Amino acid sequence: MGNKLKVGIIGATGMVGQRFACLLENHPWFEVTVLAASKNSSGMTYEEAVKDRWKMTTSLPEKYKDMVVKDAFEVEDICNKVDFVFCAISLNKKQTKLLEEEYAKHETPVVSNNSANRNVEDVPVLIPEINGAHAQIIESQKKRLGTKRGFIAVKPNCSIQSYVPPVNALMEYEPQTILACTYQAISGAGKTFNECPEILDNVIPFIDGEEEKSENEPLKIWGKVENNKIINAQNPIITTQCIRVPVTNGHLAAVFVNFKKKPSKEEIIKAWESFKAPEIVLNLPSAPKQFLKYFTEDNRPQTNLDRDYENGMGITMGRLREDKIFDYKFVCLSHNTLRGAAGGGVLSAEYLKACGYLTAK
Ligand code: NAP
User: Fold this and answer.
1) Which of 6, 29, 19 is nearest to 284 (CA)?
2) What is the CATH number of the domain that holds 145?
């Protein structure tokens, strides 16, 4: 194991947990020492627990097969075996919030994919390329929780990952209003086609809670750290419609934007192509080399062709043109279980380690 950090995956048997397991199989900085899920799975080997529901296209990594799955609520026992945990569980918000806090209070940092703590003022919602500086709020959070090293950091909802990065690259032009319609994959609900027959030959115009998250979370990401809190930005005003479509992976968005200082089309493309993450992020093992890519072809990005751009960690855009009502419209795409979930979680953890927030116990 060398000097790798020991990590647990809480929710290891689910769609996102399986992604975490695959991404961490040969990770240079992190070694999985605990796999945990509900009481239904605990006590089984990981192979037994996922045998009829392995959802990845690659096979179940050998190294996890014989690991015995733990009950996610055996917090103390798990905390004795890890330096930090990734958390991706399907529980109600109240229970999830309490469980994540319990790990933090047992001096075990939590890098979470769940939404339960995203609205807490001293919990950073990280896209390291954009708002890595929000990690500084962790010091205030530790004071509130009474911890020395335990804290919670979260990654944002998968639905916003496609449109927040390209809009962020245009902040100097002061975006005022954004309309985004997202076309979201079924893996976003933790499902495959076998588990979601209602989506075949169909489009479902409702994803519970998704529009609220899609409209509010970007404002926290663009917010400021002040007086031990993250104060949300007031602008741009965002309205969304989130729609489930029959694809396995990849959330695509059709986006319309008005600016205070309207840029030219060339200025927008230049801002996207020249966007560079801070050096500390670029050097992380999971960071995309080029975060944003613009396609000039009229029929790109396409979910099936482009979701794996930069190992599923980059964002692709296309179809930028002027609009009759808004200044511009464009299409953008991100991989929901990679950049939008486990990959984004791993990148955030790498960033937190590089900043000294994640250390060996
Ligand atoms: P999922 O496939 O339904 O997996 C849920 C996981 O939670 C399983 O490991 C399950 O264990 C565990 N679990 C369920 N009830 C539990 C309980 N009472 N106690 C402890 N563990 C319990 O869900 P998912 O799609 O991976 O999503 C997990 C979380 O990530 C959710 O909060 C979701 O909103 C968020 N997220 C998902 C995506 C995505 O693209 N899918 C993107 C961003 C964020 P068992 O197998 O033992 O039941």
Assistant:
1) 29
2) 3.40.50.720
Residue 243 has pLDDT above 80, yes or no: yes
For residues 194 and 318, membership in a common domain is answered with yes
- What average pLDDT does range 343-355 have in this prediction? 98
Pair 238, 98 in one domain:
no
Instruction: Return the amino acid letter for 198.
Output: E
**CB-ligand 1 contact for 48 (6 Å cutoff):** no
Q: Which residues are within 8 A (CB) of 41 and not within 5 positions of it... i.e. 6 or more apart?
A: 13, 49, 69
Which band of pLDDT confidence, cut at 50, 70 and 90, is reported for residue 1? low
- Domain hosting 236: range is 159-335
Q: Does the CA dihedral 130-236-345-244 come out positive or negative? A: negative
Q: Is 251 an active-site residue?
A: yes
The model's confidence at residue 2, banded by pLDDT at 50, 70 and 90, is confident
% of the chain exceeding 70 in pLDDT: 100
Q: Is the CB of 54 under 6 A from ligand 1?
A: no
By C-alpha distance, which of 24, 29, 48 is closest to 37? 48
DSSP state of 91: -
